[in-house]
Amino acid sequence: MELTQSLQCLQPSYIREILAVAGDPNTISLAGGLPAEQSFPMPIFQSIMSQLANDSSLFQYGPTQGYAPLLDYCDQHFSLSPTDQSLVTTGSQQGLDLIARAYLNPSDGIVMEAPSYLGAVQVFELAQARIIQVDQTSDGPDLTQLEQCFAQHSPKLFYAVPDFHNPTGVCWSLAVRKQVAQLCRRYDVVLIEDAPYRELRFAGEMLPMVSELCPEQAIVLRSFSKYASPGIRLGVITGESHYIHPLITLKQASDLHSSLPMQALLLGLLTHDHFPQHLQAIRALYESRYKILASAIAEYLPDSCSAWPIEGGMFLWLILPTCDVNTLAKTLLKNGVAVVPSSVFYPAHMEGSYSALRLNFTNAEPEALVKAVSRMASALAGEV
Ligand SMILES: Cc1ncc(COP(=O)(O)O)c(C=O)c1O
Question: Would you tell me which CATH number, out of the four given (3.40.50.720, 3.40.640.10, 3.50.30.10, 3.40.50.1970), belongs to the domain 54-270?
Answer without folding.
Answer: 3.40.640.10
